[in-house]
Every structure is written in C-alpha cells, then in structure tokens.
Amino acid sequence: MGKRKRAREDALKILYEMDMTGMSAEEAVEGYLEVHGSFSGEADYVYSIVFGVEGKREEIDDLIAKFSQHWRLDRMSPVDRGALRIGVFELLYRDDIPPKVSINEAIELGKKYGDTESGAFINGILDAIYGYLLQKGIIVKEDTIDQDKGVSVLSG
After folding, report:
1. Radius of gyration of the chain, Cα coordinates, nearest whole angstrom
2. Cβ neighbours of residue 123 under 8 Å, at least 6 residues apart?
C-alpha cells in the first residue's frame, strides 16, 4: 500500500476523532501519535489533509451539503463525512493529485471503513462535485498523466 494511501487512512482516523470529540486538529494529531507512535503514511501529507480540512471545513462542508441530496451533514456517518472531506479537500486544494485519483481514494476509504453503502454514497456526491467544479472552471479535466514528471497534462 502506498504512502499517500496510508496517509489518507491516518487522516481519516484523525478526522473521525475530531468529529466525535470536538478536538482541534492539533489535539487529535497529538492523541493519534500518543497511541500509535507514528503515522503509517507520509507524515507531511497527513498534516496537509488534517490541518487543511480543519482550515477550510466550512467551505468543504458547504460544498458537500450542496450535493448531498436529502442528507444533512450531521446525519451522515462520521466515516462518510471524513472521506468526503478528504476528497473535496484534494479536489479543491491539491492540484498535484488528479481529480479521479482523489475521488477513487475517498471511495476506497468509505468501502474499507464505512458500511456497505459508503462507497456508492461517496462516489455519487464526489462525482457531482467534480462535475460542478469542472463546469465552474475551478478545476480542469485531466487528459493524461506525465509519469516522468508526475504532473497532469491538462486540456484547455
């Protein structure tokens, strides 16, 4: 399993703790490290997600709420909420990650840690958000990935 995938799992667990206890990102990260000793994934990426989601939570949650038809955020499972927040954070603020990768990774988090419906639920919401962000020109559709440089080759 890749370091980024493991980092997303670490981040999901920390976001879950924040959601359930009301802890700040700093408190939840400290608690996670006290229990686990270290992150299983790339530490910088865990911090990027956790503190990024905390800092942009209102904007992220507003976007999720806009596309989660018939589901209020407070009625979603904490796992689904966390995976959605990670996915939206990556779509909006991590242009080094192809959007389809961000969406797929969030779906996989839901499948692994959520219930039997989580993957499809997360997919539906993130796909709608992705379409909206494309339409608004906030993100640009990727055509291919340049494997040598690790960057997206984008269509205009």
Report:
1. 15
2. 103, 107
Supply angle C-alpha 30, 86, 148, rounded to 5: 105
Domains of the chain: 3-154 (1.10.940.10)
Non-local (6+) Cβ contacts of 96 within 8 A are: 150, 151
Distance CA 82, CA 110 (A): 9
pLDDT digits (tens, 9 = 90+) for 7-55: 999 999 999 999 999 999 999 999 999 999 999 999 999 999 999 999 9
* pTM reported for the whole predicted model: 0.89
Per residue in 70-117, pLDDT (tens digit) is: 889 999 999 999 999 999 999 999 999 999 999 999 999 999 999 999
Listed in sequence order, the residues at least 6 apart from 5 whose beta carbon sits closer than 8 Å to its beta carbon are 41, 105, 108
